[in-house]
């Protein structure tokens, strides 16, 4: 599902955020990406979300080679990747329902499907009763769950999350992680960047460690051995 | 991708080879699927446009004050040329009846006998270049003058009628051409009983020349103001894009195409332009209704039945179309410049 081949990213301001990263994440796999801040976690996720392009090497996601992707093809590729951001990136002047519906509206789904799928998605994250509220009226954890509902509403095969529990207390964080595990159980490939080592360890999935832009061999903490 | 393609192609041709029948049915079915998909896409396309249409209208109405100000500025900018156009049309309307009425007034010498006048009328009537001759006796001229000039009372102070016999000579259409009418004028002027021959056309020519300048001025002004509308809409849309920077970023992140993001802004420009045009129409209509009374009074003083014409239907449609197009174009320019700069980071 995710295939990095000797991938590097240099920024114009100098400094190499990623260098020589090789990574293989199979379909239906769930993994955590960890490392100190500045180790390149965000950069790696940005390459997957096509927010940045690799300076060298091959990034192949879901069978598509990003290195050769034209600007016009980017939106369609992004629709197959559910991205969850630390700061939620919700539209604060629209209701929860409208926020979650946005990917479907963008994809031009029929109206009745939108209603049904948004409700299913909100039900999954336990926010069905808040669909008419504005995001700012919700707690941080709830906003994050709206973001998750939006990411999964069009059933992408791949979910990518950047510090999804960054601002949440341990209980809420665990809830969110379990939610991701549930999605993984129904066949979604999940990659989560997080520096919450305790939580990651408890989840018992494969852990990828980045250090100064290099990927240390993706070791596992318990049964999630590759 | 190229590698994938080359890897896949032999496989594909191999599956196609075995039976030509299979190929044809399959291609027929894929064509049907494609057509179906094309139809769905077309429906999705229109639906997307409809959504954007109403979304943008909602945004315009959600910000009533700033929208109204922009619309008012556009309205005034469009109302100026439209109003001047109406004014010109009215002037043209007043003078339209005069256009083909080339007429030569022959003022006869004082004291020409009535019999002599009749003879001259007959003589002129038989000339091939003449269509008609009307004899206005001094008494008729006096009555007419009394009726139309408004100086009736002043005339009563005169002892005798100072007006001469006048022959109003209308040349045939062919003889009315500028080149033909000059020699005719000379000929009539040389008749012994004629004191003065006047061609009532020079001032008309000047009037038309002035109106041509007016038309050109309206055109120039219109182009300049159209440019202004373009800039106003462009700026409004630019601000709207900046205000929605975060939203655009989020939309791009979850797979919105440029067209999807562009659409509401284009429709917003279209709405501003259209509503501005409606405003222009209202402004012109209002101004004309304010002018209506005074113009009516003035035209009564001239004993004329002239009444101020309003913006005709075609002109209203033109104003609406121009407003809408300028709005769309202004938005297009702004969107093209500024949307590309916003990329998620």
Structure report:
- Chain A has 226 residues and is of the alpha/beta class.
- Chain A folds into two domains: 1-80 and 159-165 and 188-226, 3-Layer(aba) Sandwich (Rossmann fold), CATH 3.40.50; 86-155, no CATH class.
- Chain A contains seven helices and ten strands.
- Chain A has helices spanning 41-48, 74-78, 96-106, 111-124, 140-152, 170-185, 197-203, and strands spanning 2-10, 16-25, 30-34, 56-61, 64-65, 81-84, 158-162, 189-193, 206-211, 214-216.
- In chain A, the strands form two sheets. Chain A has a six-stranded mixed β-sheet, sandwiched between helices. Chain A has a four-stranded antiparallel β-sheet with strand order 2-1-4-5, with helices on one face.
- In chain A, helix 6 (170-185) links the parallel strand 7 (158-162) and strand 8 (189-193).
- Chain A starts with a strand and ends in a 10-residue tail after the last strand.
- A four-stranded antiparallel β-sheet of chain B has the order 2-3-1-4.
- Helix content of chain B is 73%, strand content 7%.
- In chain B, helix 10 packs antiparallel against helix 11.
- Chain B contains eleven helices and four strands, in the order H-H-H-E-H-E-H-H-E-H-E-H-H-H-H.
- Chain B is elongated and about 100 Å long.
- Chain B is of the alpha+beta class.
- Chain B has two domains: 47-97 and 205-338, no CATH class; 104-200, Alpha-Beta Plaits, CATH 3.30.70.3040.
Give the number of helices of chain B: 11
CATH secondary-structure class of the largest domain in chain A: Alpha Beta
C-alpha termini separation of chain B: 27 Å
Pick out the low-confidence regions of chain A.
219-226
Helix content percent band of chain B = over 70%
Biggest β-sheet strands, sense, barrel of chain B: 4 strands, antiparallel
